[in-house]
Amino acid sequence: MAFLKGMFVFATAFVVLNGVNCIDIYHEWIVSIDTTINPLTSHQSVITINGMFPGPLINATTNDVVIVNVFNNMDESLLITWNGIQQRLNSWQDGVSGTNCAIEPGKNWTYVFQVKDQIGTFTYFPSINFHKVAGGYGQIRVNNRNVIAIPFPKPEAEFDLLIGDWFRTDYKSLRSSIQEKQSSQFFDVPDAILMNGKRPYDELSISKGHKSFTVTKGMTYRFRISNVGTVMSFNLRIQDHKMVLVETEGSYTNQITLDSLDVHVGQSYSVLVTADQNEADYFIVATPKMFKSDQSLEGIGILHYNNSLTTVSSPVPAGPDPFDIAFSVNQAKSITWNMTTGAARPNPQGTFNVSNVTLAQTFILHGLKGEINGWPRYLVNNVSYLTPETPLKLADMFVNGSGIYQLDQFPTHSVNAATAYGVSVVSGIHKGWLEIVFKNDLNVMDSWHLDGFGFYVVGFGNGDWTPAARETYNIFDPVVRSTVQVYPGRWTSVYVFLDNPGMWNLRSQHLKNWYLGQELFIRVFDNNPNPAKEKQPPQNLLLCG
């Protein structure tokens, strides 16, 4: 069955929800395979939405209701997840294997979710079947309500900058290859870094296939930057221009001025860039971290002044040593929460903070690589997640999870002696403070994401974590975000307040790791039957398994 191509986006009149003005934003998406876009290779399968790669922007305001009718015009089942959108009281809309049945080929399903009490920069992407490596991703903006001022002068314009690694090989071949017994380092090194789906600038090419942003001298612009890749962290810089960091994944930050910014897989930032140089063209460069790069792995775009008569010329501006972990860690520690500004609500972000909390739980999670019966797998505490046919949330509703998973069988404090498969579901204490220590036992970067929440990034450290490490935590102004990097052989600690009942995915954002088992689910249960505590399943609920 083929659907007509097209995009229909419109907003209703204002409605009142829980006493707050908001609007309904409608999208109708046709998700298809396109072999004509050719980011690098002819006849490569690229996942498009309404013929677009990247997909359409979702542009919402705090508390708006987003309605996305997704038509699956591919030959495989599909889910879309909304990376960083907290789905308050509504994990039914989260779009991952543990919460939703997939949208089958030739079928459609409508997501309905509210961007409740959120602002900031986020992304969406397909969450199953290794689809993200083929595209299907796009940007989500959640703007402040008019009654709450942003903590910087209004920029002249906003630009979305989606940067990600890309492979020449078709996604189905990649998916098969990583599961082979001799997969080794396959998939670890991509072929290029794209900017908004465009190949890097090449001064020797007559093609204009690269990404360019046009600015006016003297004006300031907001760049919303996201790492939509699957493997590599990157360092971003704009030739001869400073960047002022102002926001990350829904939190306004204390403003710091940077020459370059590390952005790890799954992360998003907002920076302000002032066009304060001579009217010319300037390189925008993204190069991989923890990798000795050549020119083929430089993502290159252009900052073009609108009266420019001067093109760019090599070399591109150099960045920090990609193996300088100290530089990257120090920059990460310098990204802190603006405690005094309002965001989704008029009261300061810092009204709710971690300066004096009592921990109810601690999870210590080791990200590992291993084998099970000779097959390559990624693991958490030596358990590799095995996706059941029935989504966990559905199993909870019908059979209280019986026969699908065993609650709290996963080891949250230790590494099992032997590798094994498991349907890893752990209890999170409702309205309790959870400390999660992510330990990276790999020799490459990793990043972790938690659906349903923002977590406070309180600490980075080397070697093994011990309770004494809490003395080093930043509990004054740690930034709140939903994806955090973990450096090779090191640990990262976060605090989470579990006030959002539901079934929530905790995963590696590195696609190979995620697809091969580096994930688990946190079940936050509130036994109060009041529907205001957690939403009932939607009327269009899909059944499977």
Class from secondary-structure proportions: mainly beta
Number of strands: 35
Q: Please list the strands of the largest sheet in the order they lie side by side.
A: 13-12-15-20-17-18
- Largest sheet, if any? 6 strands, mixed
Proportion in β-strands: 35-45%
End-to-end Cα distance, whole Å, is 24 Å
Percent of residues in helical segments? under 10%
Unreliable residue runs: 1-19
What would you call the shape? Answer: globular
Rg from Cα: 22 Å
Mean pLDDT: 93
| Tally of individual helices | 4
Please describe what this structure looks like.
It is built from four helices and 35 strands. The chain has helices at about 170-180, 325-335, 390-400, 510-515, and strands at about 10, 15, 20, 25-35, 45-50, 60, 65-70, 80-85, 110-115, 120-125, 140-145, 155-165, 190-195, 210-215, 220-225, 235-240, 245-250, 250-260, 260-265, 270-275, 280-290, 300-305, 360-370, 375-380, 385, 420, 425-430, 435-440, 445-450, 455-460, 480, 485, 490-495, 500-510, 520-525. The chain has a six-stranded mixed beta sheet with strand order 13-12-15-20-17-18, with no helix packed on it. It has a six-stranded mixed beta sheet with strand order 24-23-28-33-30-31. The two termini are about 25 Å apart. The model is unreliable at about 1-20 (pLDDT under 50).
